[in-house]
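During data preparation, a discrete fold description was generated, and the record follows.
___
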Amino acid sequence: MTIRVLLADDQTLIRAGFRVLVDRAPDLEVVGEATNGREAVELAAATRADVILMDIRMPELDGIEATRLITEDEDLAGVRVLILTTFELDENVLRAGASGFLSKSVEPADLQEAIRVVAGGEALLSPKATRGLIARFLDESTPGPLPSPVRLDGLTERERETMALVAAGLSNDEIGERLYVSPLTAKTHVNRAMMKLSARDRAQLVVFAYQSGLVRAGDLPVQ
């Protein structure tokens, strides 16, 4: 199955470079190019791309707001957004619903694999990157959990444990190793937690883990 990719960047040379890298993989295909956030939203609806490579700083509508509009549109529920930028990221990436982020200096093979990961419904959030984002997403000087309507009453103890490991940036394979279960079982626990909490993807599950007080920024492992 070919993964359909939409490029959103206001710089022609950067789009051209990413097009070459994407089209070089036999299972990836560029289906459109947007020069600003407004075009990205329109082309997301027109192409129904599986993954959008989204720049943050673009004219007319920036990548964060474009991402928010796309991820909040129920008709585009299957579209994933992967942020690509040279700038420091903040909590707005998570709030907007992006499934992950990468530096524009990423290696070609890593970019291709990142697209596959995000297309598969997983979040591309490493423990180190998650620590930085969550530290700003939550005010660590504020004691106690962040006030939020997110409640975990419907989750089993194993689903809570799995959710905490997702928030630490672990993959299904790593969660399986930690819990002594198969990667498929780990994925099942993750999916059930997402379903019960109506989370769009793993990135939103990370946000919910912190909003509910299940984990705190200081709980993340240093890597």
Notes: The beta strands are 3-8, 28-34, 51-54, 80-85, 100-103. The first helix runs from residue 12 to 24.
